[in-house]
Design goal:
Elements lengths: L7 E3 L10 H9 L9 H10 L5 H11 L17 H10 L3 H11 L18 E3 L2 H30 L2 H15 L7
Antiparallel strand pairs: 1-2
Helix pairs in contact: 1-3, 2-3, 2-5, 4-5, 5-6
């Protein structure tokens, strides 16, 4: 209950936007305790938190057998071409990889995937019919993305070369805004 005795719901975000940067850096600098299934999570955290320092990247390349030689980067403030990524991974028969990227890098303010206790408006909702409907819809989308992320994590654990595919697709997606489709 808040100050006015109204009922309030609080979400607990489960996305990759809720970590502390120092924790991400520490985990990626020494990933020896990470299970193979954490490979995709660590890769997307490195991108999401703009960690370009070679030490954590090299530690992860070695630990998870990523077939890359250096860090990928997502440009700060640059838009990711969501349509390009969706089409690209659908054509490759890997839509779960797009779900993972969407959950990590472009969650669209879904209160179940991003939010912060420092910003109560992002996780706190007065119980109203409109908010309940919104939260049901947000949960349906979050559940779909979480399911895709889980599948993608298993896929990357089995085939680490998918990390290179994701990184290259993300880099191209930032350049693709200038492309003209015919």
């Amino acid at each position: 209950l808040d100050d006015e005795n109204d009922l309030t719901l609080y979400t607990q975000p489960m996305g990759l936007n809720n970590y502390i940067e120092d924790d991400v850096y520490e985990m990626s600098s020494d990933p020896s305790d990470c299970r193979d299934e954490m490979s995709l999570t660590v890769f997307l955290l490195l991108l999401n938190y703009y960690i370009c320092d070679p030490e954590p990247w090299m530690a992860c390349i070695e630990r998870f057998n990523w077939p890359i030689e250096e860090a990928f980067s997502v440009q700060w403030g640059s838009d990711i071409d969501r349509s390009y990524l969706r089409r690209y991974f659908k054509r490759k028969g890997l839509p779960e990889l797009f779900d993972a990227i969407q959950m990590a890098l472009i969650p669209d303010g879904n209160p179940f995937l991003c939010g912060s206790p420092e910003d109560l408006d992002s996780i706190c909702f007065e119980i109203t019919g409109e908010n309940i409907k919104y939260l049901y819809e947000a949960w349906d989308e979050a559940e779909r993305l979480l399911s895709g992320f889980e599948k993608a994590s298993r896929m990357v654990a089995v085939d680490p070369s998918l990390v290179a595919m994701i990184g290259k697709a993300l880099e191209r997606s930032q350049k693709s805004k200038g492309r003209v489709r015919v």
